[in-house]
Amino acid sequence: MENITAALTYHDRTKHRPQRYAASLGYMDWATQPDPFRRYEGAPLIALAHTEITPPYHLLFGPEPLPAAPVCFESISQLLRYSLGLAAWKSAGGSTWALRCNASSGNLHPTECYLLTPPVSGIADKAVLSHYAPREHALEMLHTYEGEPLPQGTILIALSSLIWREMWKYGERCWPYCQLDAGHAAQSLKTAAAMLGWECELLSVETDEIGRLCGLDQLERFDEHERESPDLLLRIGQSAPFAFPDTPALPCRANRLSPSHHAWPAVEAIDTAARGIYPASAPILRPRRLPLPSRSAGEIILKRRSAQMMDGTGISEAVFRQILDASLYCRNAPDITFAIFVHNVAEIEKGLYIYVRNHEERETLRAAMDPEFDWNDCGEGLYLLRSLDYRSTAQRISCNQEIAKEGAFSFGMLCRFSPVLEEKGAIGYKNLYHQCGMIGQTLYLEATSLGLSATGIGCFLDDEFHALLGLRDQRYQSLYHFTIGRAIVDTRITTLPPY
Ligand SMILES: Cc1cc2nc3c(=O)[nH]c(=O)nc-3n(C[C@H](O)[C@H](O)[C@H](O)COP(=O)(O)O)c2cc1C
Description:
With about 500 residues, the chain is an alpha+beta fold. It has helices spanning about 1-15, 75-80, 165-170, 175-195, 205-215, 265-275, 295-305, 315-325, 360-370, 390-395, 405, 420-425, 425-450, 460-470; strands at about 40, 45, 85-90, 95-100, 110-115, 130-135, 140-145, 155-160, 200, 230-235, 255, 335-340, 350-355, 375, 380-385, 410-415, 455, 475-485, 495.
């Protein structure tokens, strides 16, 4: 009960309000900007391969999985290259920065990835624990296990948050951004696994166990402000039971990312409260449509970019519905409904809509929202609540960001909230953000495959949006916003190859 109260308190405290944004420094402290790349000093580095040939994107979401690739050096290389690897280097005005396959709030990339792989020729002749180094596209070897700790062909992938990276810029509201980013990273891994015909399952395990497996509990190896918090564990391979192997004291120390730090105790409090047994949901959702033929998955993943400006032009109804349906590829994200501002979709009236992804939610949603809404059934889970031009409202609610107005549509991911916390505890709060992030990464890729662009929006006025929907309590809360349309490309920025 105590940890639920901690989550509710943190959530309320870190909402952006028109007169008072969540607490942060209020300026960019460039002197303490964190290094975006974690490295372990002294850990042997194994360079991974750069594979170019990947299957068409739409085949990843068809009724049948692709034939499974063997677990080998090349397939593990491809998994990481197209999930958490670099997508490009960008350069403008004398600065250069890397973009990655997974989107990240502020491009700060708090998510770190650890792997437990079986003996694989080219990596190690024993099972190993490694850390993925995206700049080098390489594995840093942290520990070699004696014996065979996992069932044959199984790979475990752990994701953790290096919260300081987001805290540096966003202050108290950084924790949701870390969790959304972890969801983006998890979905990136699931997509890259599907390219190899691999099932990639989120496991219901104790988060502290994940930390122990990766040596994150060995606190002396990290600067005290730059520790990592375990988020989730993915498994590739058969769903046979296994016991976590013991990870002994690891010799390698983590690099230091910033010379000094700012503390935000509210973040530490929520991060401590939101630990426990991870509530992995069953895959209950099912897309209604078949994916449209597309280019190769690798090309789409590397081309995905967040739009910084959009041109306000429209899209067809078929494309709109295809994108909404693609959110159901995230079959394990049943707690999210979309509250959509349709700005410019041919054949669809401008207005406020609800897209019910999980039809079991419809009546409870309806009861929780403004009783004056129309609820006109537009088919496939889409309901028109009110016809109106919501462009300026969308911009205002998205902290005045024009992309929310200039997209063909923008929306908030409305989550079943207090009931999830009551059922699952504060770790359910964490999982809701992961669900939103997974949907976000999927929609980025779907938009790219359809020749469009998207942008995740973490900066929004929470309760303004809730008031607009007539929500009066905590049964539903919007945890992530998103916009999809046509990007205006900034030609002043130069693109360089990732490797
Ligand atoms: C959780 C999350 C929140 C974001 N919030 C915003 C936002 O409020 N405004 C914005 O312009 N971009 C936002 N972005 C986009 C990021 O800035 C973008 O992902 C990052 O700069 C990396 O660029 P890329 O997506 O092209 O790789 C967000 C992205 C994520 C994943």
